[in-house]
Amino acid sequence: MRLLRSDTLTETRAAPIAAALFIAILLGAPPALAEAKEASGPVAPRKPGVWSLTSENDMFGSGTDRNYSNGVRIEHVSGADNVHPGLKWVAARLPWIDVERTDLRQGFGLSHAIFTPEDITLTDPNPLDRPYAGWLSFSSTVAATDLEKGVQDTLQVNLGIVGPSAGGEFVQNNWHNMLGIPGAQGWDHQLKDEPGVEIIAQRLQRLDKFDLPFGLETDFGGHAGFALGNVRTYVNTGLTARIGWDLDSGFGPPRIRPALAGAGEFIPGTAEVPWGGYAFIGVDGRAIARDMFLDGNLWRDSARVEDRRALVGDLQAGIAVHYRDVQVSFTWVSRTEQFAYQDGPQQFGAVSISLAH
User: Fold this and answer.
1) Hey, CA dihedral for 154, 159, 161, 165, is it positive or negative?
2) In 104, 122, 285, 286, which residue has its Cα 20 to 30 A from 236's Cα atom?
3) By its UniProt entry, which InterPro entries does this protein fall under (predicted)?
4) Which residues of 301-340 are buried (b: 16+ CB within 10 A; e: fewer)?
């Protein structure tokens, strides 16, 4: 979704922002963190519930208004082991989960995403380009985290609607009108209404961290997963590296999937060590069998691209910082071409704020 910008500004580069913020933390925060860790003994961490708000927009990347144009998600995950008894009963019978040392969480979320072609001024969109689409979904999430083994398993089910009832045209054009920007003209050709289902599973495996000077820590991790449904079907895998302080506070900031995403939780800072934060860089590759936003409706005739890429990759880098019960993060993403007509990779950014309670 296009946001207000000057006529001379043709591209927004967000990666330097992340670097500048992390340098500021590097210069100002480490001494206090290191001293607090040395002065204080081990403190049993709080593992409370967390509310998160995430906004993803190409304004934070290439400054364009095309492809994956905008996404918003609000979600809540419960405190550790504050889950339905039935979930505990099921987890206790899964051989790969040790319920005695695994933190179980459950959550829910509401997401909205908008996809547009390259030229939104055309009343009749280019048939070679991706179709207009909106995607409104409700999700239910279950996460099992074993901090001793550095493993987090996540299962998420998304149920929603693709098409006019998702409100993509309403959200985009009303936002443009508020900013005095012309609205997108081709929404009459968007994907038709179709119920959407996605089942997404992911395992994150974090390796042992290494201690560095100035109280810094670094770690590496891998992930693998899949999605199954009429909206998207794919398998994915990738790697992430992090450097910072208090890496045990979480597995990564919240994102809107498909993405390199944690389960939406983090362990807040304490009175002795209120601050924590890290920079990260990662890659994710997906082998895609279906993407409704490129392949079109499954059960109805609709616009579609004829040459979707079967393999798509994401490169991401960013920072996450928490102070006591609040965490903020920024992630810059570069996504490879998803279809032949697309003019190069897409760049976008994700901003999130999380509040533990």
Assistant:
1) negative
2) 104
3) LpxR, Put_OMP_sf
4) ebbbbeebbeebbbbbbbbbbbeebebbbbbbbbbbbbbe
Residue 88, domain extent: 15-45+54-356
Q: What is the pLDDT of residues 255-274, one digit of tens each?
A: 999 988 888 899 999 989 99
Contact 18, 279 (CB under 8 A): yes
Please give the pLDDT value at position 92. Answer: 83
> Residue 61's pLDDT is what?
66
Instruction: Give which of 65, 80, 155 is closest to 116, Cα–Cα.
Output: 65
Give residue-wise pLDDT tens across range 119-128. 999 999 999 9
Number of H helices, E strands in the chain: 5, 13
Q: 3-class SS at 15? A: helix
The single-letter code of the amino acid at 307 is D
* CATH number for the domain harbouring residue 280: 2.40.128.140
Domains: count for the chain:
1
